[in-house]
Every structure is written in structure tokens, then in C-alpha cells.
């Protein structure tokens, strides 16, 4: 083989090798960003490292469906759920619904009615701090800004049993005419029961795209 041709081939191989390295790192970065996007749907954690019972931790989620698990609940947790690409004019009857997990125990959930800076106007979502039955689902109107703020705290009667306390619930946003305000509450709960149980509880992440759900299972 001619020496010049050989040198040209070697230089081309080195150049291709460099391009391969660059593309590899770009792929790693994009994969990391994608993983972070999926993590915005659900959150699983435990009490803050701070021993201060007045400490408040904030969790921000941006999905139509997800899961929140907070173990060894100390202090309080604010969960901000934002519906991505939400337009209230297009979805005037949008609802957000919650279902307690069987592992939920001794923790109260409140709707802060769109306010993340004030403890006033809290609305209790579930009357009991524990999971009572498999049909226990509650729904509220989705605010026009598409943002829901939940306040989560340990029930005062169980303040000494942190080891056995945990918040564990699922949420789902219904945008279109799946749920309407004219529906009877009993019909809503029946409809939600079927929708929640059609999907296994191991659902961790989901994305809303072109009015369809794409689910990822672990």
C-alpha cells in the first residue's frame, strides 16, 4: 500500500475515533437529562437529615401521573405538582385525583389551594391518617394555573411513632372529559377505581404526549 494512502487512512481512523468519543459523551449527557425528566414524576425519600421537627422539605413534580413516598415522616413536606403544558381554557373540567397506598400510615394530606407560602386555607384530602380501604380515592378541581400544592405532615397523635409512619400515595391528572363535574361522586370513585387498578402500583414514571399516556415500569 502506498505510504501516503496509509497515512491518510490512519488519520481518518483517528478522526473517526475522536468523533465516536464526542458522540458517546453527548449520548451520556442526553441520557442523564432524560433520567432527570423521568424522576420529576415520582419521589421517594425519607425524613430530612435535620433533627428539627419544624423543618419543611419541598418536592416539585411535573407529570400527569406519579407516586410520592415519604418514610419516617418528620417535620413537614410540601409537594408541588404541576401539569405540563396545561391550558385551563382547553381543559376546564380538569381534575387531579389521589389514592392512598396500603403502606400509608399516620400521615395527613392537605390541599393548600394553590398557596405555597401560607398555611391558611388548608383542605384535608382524607379524613383518616391511614389507608382505610382499596376504594379510597379523592379528587379536586385542578387550578387554572395547573399547579397543586400539597401539605403533608405526621398526625399529632402519632408524633412518637415516626418509625412506623409514612406518607405513600398516587396522583393522576384527568384533563379531558374523563371526569366531569356533573358526574355523581359515587360514579367518579367507581370510574377511578378501574382506572387506578388497570395500572400496577409499580408505576414510577409517565409522560403525557399527544393526549396519550406512555408508562414506564420498574
Report on this model:
Belongs to the meteorin family. By secondary structure, the protein is of the alpha+beta class. It has a single domain, classed as Jelly Rolls (Sandwich). The chain has two helices and twelve strands. The chain has helices spanning about 5-40, 185-200; strands spanning about 45, 55-60, 65-70, 75-80, 95-100, 105-110, 125, 135-140, 145-155, 165-175, 205-210, 210-215. The strands form three sheets. The chain has a five-stranded mixed sheet, with helices on one face. Strands 2-4-9-6-7 form a five-stranded mixed sheet, with no helix packed on it. Strand 11 and strand 12 (about 210-215) form a beta hairpin.
Instruction: Please identify, by name, the CATH architecture.
Output: Sandwich
What proportion of the residues form beta strands (DSSP E)? 25-35%
Q: Taking Cα atoms only, what radius of gyration do you get, to the nearest Å?
A: 23 Å
Shape: elongated
Kindly state the percentage of residues in helix: 10-25%
Strand-helix topology:
Layout: H1 3-39, E1 43-46, E2 56-61, E3 65-71, E4 76-82, E5 95-100, E6 107-111, E7 123-124, E8 137-141, E9 147-154, E10 166-174, H2 185-198, E11 203-209, E12 212-217
Parallel strand pairs: 1-3, 2-4
Antiparallel strand pairs: 3-10, 4-9, 5-8, 5-10, 6-7, 6-9, 11-12
Amino acid at each position: 500500500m502506498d505510504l501516503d494512502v496509509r497515512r491518510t487512512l490512519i488519520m481518518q481512523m483517528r478522526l473517526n475515533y475522536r468523533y465516536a468519543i464526542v458522540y458517546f459523551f453527548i449520548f451520556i449527557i442526553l441520557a442523564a437529562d432524560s433520567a432527570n425528566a423521568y424522576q420529576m414524576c415520582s419521589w421517594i425519600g425519607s425524613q430530612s437529615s435535620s433533627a428539627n421537627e419544624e423543618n419543611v422539605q419541598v418536592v416539585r413534580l411535573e407529570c400527569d401521573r406519579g407516586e410520592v413516598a415519604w418514610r419516617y415522616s418528620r417535620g413537614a413536606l410540601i409537594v408541588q405538582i404541576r401539569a405540563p403544558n396545561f391550558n385551563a381554557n382547553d381543559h376546564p373540567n380538569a381534575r387531579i385525583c389521589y389514592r392512598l397506598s396500603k403502606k400509608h400510615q399516620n400521615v395527613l394530606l392537605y390541599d393548600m389551594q394553590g398557596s405555597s407560602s401560607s398555611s391558611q386555607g388548608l383542605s384535608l384530602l382524607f379524613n383518616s391518617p391511614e389507608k382505610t380501604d382499596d376504594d379510597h380515592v379523592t379528587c379536586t378541581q385542578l387550578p387554572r394555573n395547573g399547579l397543586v400544592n400539597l401539605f403533608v405532615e405526621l398526625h399529632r397523635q402519632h408524633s412518637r411513632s415516626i418509625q412506623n409512619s409514612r406518607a405513600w400515595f398516587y396522583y393522576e391528572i384527568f384533563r379531558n372529559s374523563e371526569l366531569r363535574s356533573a358526574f355523581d361522586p359515587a360514579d367518579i370513585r367507581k370510574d377511578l377505581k378501574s382506572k387506578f387498578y388497570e395500572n400496577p402500583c409499580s408505576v414510577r414514571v409517565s409522560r403525557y404526549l399527544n393526549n396519550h399516556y406512555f408508562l414506564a415500569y420498574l
